[in-house]
Specification:
single chain, 288 residues, alpha+beta, Uridine Diphospho-n-acetylenolpyruvylglucosamine Reductase, domain 3, Enolase-like, domain 1, 3 domains, 4-stranded antiparallel beta sheet, 11 helices, 14 strands, 25% strand, binds flavin-adenine dinucleotide
Length: 288
């Protein structure tokens, strides 16, 4: 591993100052991506800025209007929170798929988002849930929808001196719920060949009145698929609607071929995942 300095600021302002002070500064949350990268692909020296000492990054609040997940909250902590799992089962099940129990004790969904892997599991789930990035900087901060945050493979919209403080997720209304599914070639500890997050809102009659569908691992970034949502809205999530939504996901994807699967295979799998995730989200919404 390359040489590094380590600082653990105690306030948001001090994190921003530390990020601006060093020639090369990099945030560490759980370190489950960062340390692997520092041991292998990028051994250049840097200052590591630990954000885990801040009250703001450790927030996990379920409010009347929104849920806030701070950038230091591990996916294990999220999954131990029963109320959160009931409200946002898609987001929490995405976190529950990241690595092993040991990895989940460290890994954060915000780190997953900042790392910006095309196959990052929490990203389609957060996009489907309508999450907003809460970004800290020297100018009082800014917000950005998660679907605009990842800009390419391994890149994100953070400017120098900025870091992700947490994500805000609109609190799902009655009869609204989400789901996330991925497919991997093994039973666990692998990265997605394809993934799909879906959130739906139903009326009292069971008609879908709102939906968001996002796909992962089938394009350079996770993407929102409005055409898939349109296929679900206005009907009762019947077979024809699910089929059309799946086809819209296939049409929106632009996957690569690699050792985990061919592009053609990924296009088919993402449609199946969309159909199944929409069905699960619908079942959950009916019971919510
Ligand atoms: C064995 C193993 C299995 C894995 N399995 C999966 C899997 O199944 N699915 C999956 O999606 N991922 C998987 N991962 C990858 C990794 O665990 C996740 O991406 C994890 O969510 C990263 O979170 P972290 O808090 O550890 O991020 P870190 O490693 O701390 O950070 C990751 C990157 O984001 C930056 N960063 C982190 N937080 C912030 C912030 N708040 N503001 C600005 N920049 C920030 C860091 O500088 C770094 O570049 C696996 C990793 C390992 C080692």
């Amino acid at each position: 591993m390359g040489a590094f300095a380590y600082v653990a600021p105690q306030s948001v302002d001090d994190v921003v100052a530390a990020l601006g002070a060093a020639d090369r500064a990099q945030v560490i949350a759980g370190g489950t991506d960062l340390l692997v990268q520092m041991r292998s692909v990028d051994r250049e020296p840097r200052t590591i800025v630990d954000i885990k000492s801040l009250a703001e990054t450790n927030r996990l609040d379920i409010g009347d209007d929104e849920v806030y997940v701070g950038a230091a909250v591990s996916s294990a902590l999220m999954n131990e929170n029963e109320a959160l799992c009931n409200l946002l089962p898609g987001v929490t099940e995405a976190g529950d798929l990241i690595g092993s129990t040991q990895i989940q004790g460290r890994a954060t969904i915000c780190g997953n988002l900042c790392n910006a892997s095309p196959a990052g599991d929490s990203i389609p789930a957060l996009i489907a849930a309508g999450a907003i990035c809460d970004i800290a900087n020297a100018n009082g901060g800014r917000e950005l929808p998660v679907d605009e945050f990842v800009t390419g493979v391994g890149t994100n919209a953070l400017e120098p001196g900025e870091f992700l403080l947490g994500v805000k997720i609109p609190r799902p209304a009655a009869h609204s719920r989400d789901a996330y599914l991925r497919f991997i070639p093994r039973t666990e500890m692998d990265i997605a060949v394809a993934g799909c997050g879906v959130s739906v809102t139903l009326d009292d009659d069971g008609t879908c009145t709102a939906a968001r569908v996002a796909i992962g691992a089938v394009a350079p970034t996770a993407i929102l698929v409005p055409a898939a949502a349109d296929a679900l809205i206005g009907g009762k999530l019947d077979e024809a609607a699910l089929q059309a939504a799946g086809e819209a996901c296939t049409a929106a994807s632009s996957p690569i071929t690699d050792k985990r699967g061919t592009a053609e295979y990924r296009r088919k799998v993402v449609a199946v995942l969309c159909r199944r995730a929409a069905e699960i989200a619908g079942q959950r919404a009916r019971g919510a």
